[in-house]
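Final report, section 2: Outcomes. Of the targets proposed, Pseudouridine synthase is the one most frequently requested by collaborating groups, and we therefore present its record in full.
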Amino acid sequence: MMDNKLVYLVEKKYENFKIRDYLKQVHGFSTRLIRGAAFGERLFVNGKTVRLSYRVLEGDKIEVDVNKPESQNVDPEKMDLNIVYEDSDIIVLNKPANMIVHPTKNYQHGTLSNGLLYYFREKGENCIVRLVNRLDMDTSGLVLVAKNQFSHMALARDMKLDTFKKEYIAVVRGNLSSLKGTIDKPIYKEEEEPIRRTIDDRGQESITHFEVVERYKNADKVKLVLETGRTHQIRVHLSSIGNPIIGDSLYGEESELIKRQALHAFKLQFPHPRDGRIVNIEVKLPEDIENLISKVKGE
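The predicted structure is given below as tokens.
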């Protein structure tokens, strides 16, 4: 298996499938990806390009070249990146607080994507930045990025599986009424409100599982697992039950103990897009949250 090629050997039970149906039904390819590979002459059977109407035979060696010329309207910028995992298909970074993941109208430079695009260019990799998950500017932790269209498609498809987990640690104000449970409340974006989200029956289904891992006099350290991935979901949900994240000025209040919301994406688990093996990645809490915990323990 070459790094830039996905290679499959056709089994007898799939003989006579059209190649587009074989890739879609057996290997989970999207129609867009199949067409792009065929029209870009990156789809091969036994070393030769084929049409999408080709019917596969037992023993056929199918190769899909996932590397293609791509560009992105992001300026590469040299910066220090905390890379915790990387291979030919994906890269996982530990994002610091006070960093946007992707350029916006107000933040064109200094984002994680600016730095990552520079890193790809320096390595001679023809990649654009395909974010699989996003974190708010002042939320730290793990960000998963796909290096090619196939990986992004596979990870987006598999995000609904039980084997795909995003786990966070938050330090909240006060003590939760239950040590463990689920917050199931719809989250809605008001048209006139550009940033803030609210709990509203008109909103999208939003589910957060929580577990108190340490209890203090006036605060809790909470582990959270997202079942859905709405903007500001954890922050909105915790605020809605009366336990806003310490330092969250949007859904709670500013704190003298920490300069941002005490929320960290500490763990990712997902099936690898190429072979389905389960990848587990975990990072420690950053210094500012550890310092916050020390302070609330002493209250």
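The longest helix spans residues 112-123.
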